Amino acid sequence: MARAVFLVCLLSIVMLVPTSLAQGLGVNWGSMGSHSLPPKNVVQMLKDNGIKKVKLFDAEPDTMEALAGSGIQVMVGIPNEKLEKLADSYKEAQEWVKQNVTKYLHDGGVIIRYVAVGNEPYLTSYNGTYVKTTYPALKNIQKALNEAGSGGKVKATVPFNADVYESPSNKPSDGRFRNDIKSNIVEILRLLNDNKTPFVVNIYPFLSLYQSSDFPEEFAFFEGGSEPVKDNNIEYKNVFDANCDTLISALKKVGFGNLDIIIGEVGWPTDGDKNANGQLAKKFYDGLLKKLATEDGTPLRKKKLEVYLFGLFDENQKSIAPGDLNVTGASFATMDSLSSLWTSAEKGKGTICLKECKECSTWTSSGAC
Fold it and tell me: What does the record give as EC number (predicted)?
């Protein structure tokens, strides 16, 4: 089956919620599309729509320079293929931090909050490829940040897929980390805890529907239309809350129940599966944003959630190696008519119409018409 295509105009969704909520939301900004917009234009769109947080999958100089002085908080990324080199050499980690973090930490520079070391490196479909290199790479990057004098403001973390934990009973209270990576996870948790760094997890309720035909559809949404999952004195009415609290239970079982959590990715596709369509995507986002607006958190963690929506653009050149329907490798559509910098985009043909221009024309890498 072709990979899922996410055709959700995220900024238009954000524009429908209160400004205070929009400013608390983050978005994922990938660069693996064949028709990318100039980074400066993207940054202006984010600012125009009140987006204050961005999660990147790399640290491309053009993107970082565009973010300088924007006031947008940034999580920069390190691709999985660089983990081995960073794990084997502290000098490599020092140089990476120098070139991609400290270089931008100046007045009028980039507000870097986190370094994402790898992306879902313990995903089961990677068959353990990055299990041995993730922790030492994380350790070296955090050490380099500390020695550069940036560790108090910039924290190294690892975005994990939700498949690193499970519940044999399907109840959140029975949450636990997978046995095959438990010792590795505990090493990472200890380092995160020592540096007061959040645990980052990517949660996709859509996958519950995709992976099981018996999964109750309404439990993937937030309207309470399915039979709740009863767990001790708690009734779970949606899989998002249940998933988050399964993680919290898993953290408690290994002694890190108070570790902060960031939702690094959450989204819903509109193509590539019978449950991937615009109607269900809108239903999901409407419910998610209403939930986030309450700032009630989850039953086990009654506090505001930091959430990054996935994602800004159609990344049609992104690898789908982890699987046919790899959500983190899926492509998302361009944002149509959403900001003061563009009013329309002809998808797939590299054309854009800027308000400064008289008519739509092919745009260059500099953003000129």
Answer: 3.2.1.39
Q: What number is the average pLDDT over the span 75-87? A: 98
Is the pLDDT at 224 greater than 80? The verdict is yes
Whether residue 359 is contained in a domain is answered as: no
Active-site annotation holds for 65: no
Chain segment 266-284, per-residue pLDDT in tens: 998 877 788 888 899 889 9
Contact 260, 301 (CB under 8 A): no
- 3-class SS shares of the chain: helix, strand, coil, % to 5: 35, 20, 45
- Asked, for residue 356, whether it belongs to a domain, the answer is no
Q: Which distant-in-sequence residues (6+ apart) come within 8 Å of 332 by Cβ?
A: 5, 6, 7, 8, 10, 30, 267, 310, 311, 312, 313, 314, 315
Distance CA 364, CA 248 (A): 47
Q: Is 369 part of a structural domain of the chain?
A: no
Active site residue 223: no
- Full domain range(s) for residue 100: 5-335
pLDDT digits 0-9 by tens, 233-269:
999 999 999 999 999 999 999 999 999 999 999 998 8
pLDDT in tens, 45-62: 899 888 899 999 999 999
- Kindly give, in sequence order, each residue whose CB lies less than 8 Å from that of residue 257, ignoring residues fewer than 6 positions away: 248, 251
- The answer to whether position 71 is within a domain reads yes
354 band by pLDDT with thresholds 50, 70 and 90: very low
SS3 193: helix
CATH number at residue 237: 3.20.20.80
pLDDT score of 359: 37
Of 65, 81, 92, 120, the catalytic one is: 120
The set of residues, in sequence order, having a beta carbon less than 8 Å from that of 13 and lying 6+ positions away, is 282, 285, 289, 309
Catalytic entry in 265, 295, 306, 346:
265
d(CA 35, CA 363): 10
Measuring CA to CA, how many Å separate 259 from each of 173, 197, 317, 361, 363? 17, 8, 35, 50, 45
Q: How buried is residue 222: exposed, middle or buried, by Cβ count under 10 Å (0-12/13-18/19+)? A: buried
Q: How many domains does the chain have?
A: 1
